[in-house]
Amino acid sequence: MSKDIVQIFDTTLRDGEQVPGCKLDREQKLVIAERLDSLGVNIIEAGFPVSSPGDFQSVEAIAKLVKNATVCGLTRAVKNDIEVAAEALKHAKIPRIHTGIGTSDSHIKHKFNSNRDAIIERAVAAVSYAKTFVEDVEFYAEDAGRTDNEFLARVCEAVVKAGATVLNIPDTTGYCLPDEYGAKIKYLRENVKGIDKATLSCHCHNDLGLATANSIAGVINGARQIECTINGIGERAGNTSLEEVVMIMRQHPGLNLDTTINSKLLYDTSLMVSRKMGMMVQPNKAIVGANAFAHSSGIHQDGVIKNRETYEIIDPADVGVTESSIVLTARSGRAALAYRAKIVGYELTKTQLDQVYQEFLKYADVKKEVKDDDIHQIIETSKIDLQS
Ligand code: KIV
Ligand code: ZN
What we know:
By secondary structure, the protein is an alpha/beta fold. Helices cover about 45% and strands about 15% of the residues.
């Protein structure tokens, strides 16, 4: 049975770039956009054109540059925002306007000092106006995670009728539990008239560390687009991480879902974004962290040396990492020491290894990590006879 393709909507250059301390210039944005296009991303959210002249120019330049992906610009449900976004996107091969408004009671009361009916009117007016510029209009119901499902379904039904092609259901505050978010998507699929004309999209934030789990719950329940960023960067604790959702779908064939992403470019893309944004990737980050394929305890090292699959569920080559690493520490055993010693040029007999191992432990107890140079030094300064 062929797999359903989940569209990957990358918002590194919009939600991702809002991160404090990170500022990309236009050239850097263009290089990232080009890379996202070769990575196989389906939609690139290039920015929020009305927010500043610089952002407008970046979106315009990205729209001219990108060859394959849809290029998208964010707007509020405001006429001028929509006009400016349409202008910035006018050279895109496939343009999309992403417009929307807050739908939770908290947003309606505190942000808009409004009421539910008036919010629906504004949402419909924004979508209808955006449709006069482009065919592809995505609607976001900001804070949908905390919006009651019945009202959310009313909003969705009204904007689909007005021509929205994609319904973005953001868990803006990262509040939902996976079961709750999945149930929300299922409820919309079952209760919004005309839903077959639109794609449901997951846009999850990571305030409780659940962005990836929530997005996966969303696609299991019928959403067919995930909004995400490289390395999971984004407002506060970040957005859903692109590399995580892509590899979850790839590693679980039973889900019958896949993406068009060339996973072999993931590691390199992560490095590129982290360097350009000056945002370090935490070492234990899934898929692309420096330790994602590093083994440091003796039991694990012994297993991986015998067969990689004992402790690795992903072949590192599939995400563009050359090889798993065996990191030597005071927790490492003889198997790991012999393995690395062989790589640096010493084939040790069992007796030699026993001797070197004692020296290694003394060294490792002082040093946090024993590098290849250190192994060389330990072997050469230990009194073993290397000829025997
Ligand atoms: O998190 C959010 O709700 C957003 C919308 C503007 C799409 O980023
Ligand atoms: Zn967001």
